[in-house]
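Raw record, unedited: Biotin carboxyl carrier protein of acetyl-CoA carboxylase
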Amino acid sequence: MEFEKIIKLVECVSASGLTSFQYESGGEKIILECKNQDNRMTPVGSTVVSNMPLWDLQAKGQTLQSQPVVPSREDDESGNIVKSPLVGTFYSASSEEADDFVSVGDHVKKGQILAIVEAMKLMNEIESDFEGEVAEIYVKNHEAVEYGQPLFRIV
């Protein structure tokens, strides 16, 4: 099964409130299990900065376990949170050689580009909805991000 289809499946199961889901087709088997109360799941191998639980993926008889998840501090801090509008890969700059769009301490204006999230080979610019100073960046370059995941705190 293609990675994009697996992500879509995870999103649908997470949104449904199910605590367990199994899918088997053509010799591939996927098992999704929620490990906590809020029924959200984290993709295998992602380093997501959020409060999402871990889940197991069993594909072709092999079990993979995701990395430990670091809780988000979005509720602990004041300011405005810029969240990811989609699932994808976070990029802090337009290319490997370019400087980051913003750093902690930078003053940003409403509409200014903060980062890029790549989804299905499309580069989506993440613009600030707020004017202020970048107080915190919750994600690292090249990390997988989920829909609604906090990316920046602007004060």
